[in-house]
Amino acid sequence: MENNSISTGRKAYIALMKGLCLLSAAVTCGIALFLIGYVLFKGVPSITWELLSTRPSYLAGTIGILPDILNTVYLIIATLLIVLPLGVGAAIYLTEYAQNKRLAAVIEYAAETLSGIPSIIFGLAGMLLFANTFGSCLLAGALTLVIMNLPTVMRTAQESLKTVPAGYREGAFGLGAGKWRVVRTVVLPGCVDGVVTGCVLSAGRILGESAALLFTAGLAHTLNGFFASLASPGAALTVALYLYAKEPGPGGAEASFAIAAILMALTLGINLIAILAGRYFKRRSAL
Asked: Cα torsion for 242, 34, 202, 123, to the nearest 10°?
């Protein structure tokens, strides 16, 4: 009887824990679906071709976000061009070359600390370091985003490098290959899925960043080419959303919800691309 009561109580406890876990998952999914649905419901009807293809005109009273879209694309390109070599290079050094374990531990600890700092702190640091040097421009914003995304790229690439079997390296060394040749021809192709995933996730973080750009990139809705934009102030989509949300009247609210819907759709698309790219390269490496 005692054993039966214990087993019955344990079964009830397990059922309760499963129910609580299921409830937690349902609440989380429900909140996410509500936010996505609400933003898309409010924003999609306000998305028009005129909004996407024109610049804002305060004299005519029209709102256009084409400069903000291009500024966001320029920020993503400039940031990734800098952060990818730095992040992947740091990961290769820590995984393949670092002999001083204390130094490697300090670098990893610094990267983890950077990843936990609020973005507003990066914005203040970027304003002091880059905006005061280059002025408020997209280049200053991109350099600030490089510091923000460097830990993500480095840690993602480092974990991917660790998944490459040691036998691959030993076999290449046995054939007479040098250290860099082994890294370039054996290790990097075996972890390309992690590098691509880190790149895509960094693009998603760049797309959703606003606090750091408010202090560094500027607030202008100017339409320039890539190199001209890097040297001049410009508002990204997230900054434009903040600016339009502060404007009185229905026009600003409609524009802010439209930009929010665009950002939501782009974020979902980037996350989907990251998942599909990771699966593709894993299947490719397994063949």
From this structure: 30
CA distance 108 to 155: 8
CA atoms within 13 A on the CB side of 68: 30
| Rounded distance between C-alpha atoms, residue 44 and residue 180, angstroms | 50
Tell me the mean pLDDT in the region 225-243. Answer: 87
Look-up of token digits 């007479």? 176
| pLDDT surpassing 80 at residue 5 | no
In this prediction the pTM is 0.83
Contact 152, 204 (CB under 8 A): no
Cα distance between residue 226 and residue 75, in whole Å:
9
Among residues of the chain, what percentage have pLDDT more than 70? 93
* Average pLDDT over the chain, rounded to an integer: 84
Round the CA-based radius of gyration of the chain to a whole number and report it.
24
